[in-house]
Amino acid sequence: MAFGFRKASITEQSRVWEILEQAIIRRRADGSNQWQDGYPNPAVVQKDIEAGIGFVLTDNDLIAGYAAVLINDEPTYADIEGEWLTNEDFVVVHRVAIAQDHLGKGLSGKMLEYIEAYAADNNIYSVKVDTNFDNIAMMKIFEKRGYIYCGEVYFRGSPRRAYEKVLPRNTEIR
Known about the structure:
The chain has helices at residues 13-29, 42-50, 107-121, 136-144, and strands at residues 3-7, 54-59, 62-71, 81-82, 91-98, 126-132, 148-155, 158-166. The chain is an alpha+beta fold and 174 residues long. This is GNAT family N-acetyltransferase.
C-alpha cells in the first residue's frame, strides 16, 4: 500500500462526505451521540475544502480517510477546563473519519502521523485534538500516539475530552 496525505479538492467532496456519513452511522451504531445532530454535513465538508483545511488520506489513488486540519484556529480551546501542555502555535484536528472499507488497518493513527509531520513542516510543535467521552476507539488512538489528556472543552454545549501532543523539535517525525 502506498499512502499519501494531501489537501482535498472540491471534486472529491462527495467521496469525503460518503466517508463522514459512514462514520456517522458507525457512531450511532456504537450508541454514541457524537455527530448525531446534523453535524458534520455536506456544507461543512464544502467549507473545509474551500478553506483549504480539508485533507485526505489516500491509499494508492483511493481516498481512505478525511480530517480537517487547522492552524491556531479553535476559539473553544481557549476555554479549556484543565490546562494545555503548551501555549504556542498549534495544529487542530477535527472530523477524523476512515472509509468503511479501510477500517482495521490503523489508518486513523497513520493520518495523525501525517498531521504531526505537517505541523512540524510548518514549524509548529503542538497538535491539539478532542473527542466525545464515549469515543473509546479514538481515545485509544490518541493515547497510543502519545497524546496527553489535558481536560475538557465544549462544542455545541457538549463536553469533549481534549488532548495535546508536543512534537519534538528539529527531528524527523516520519
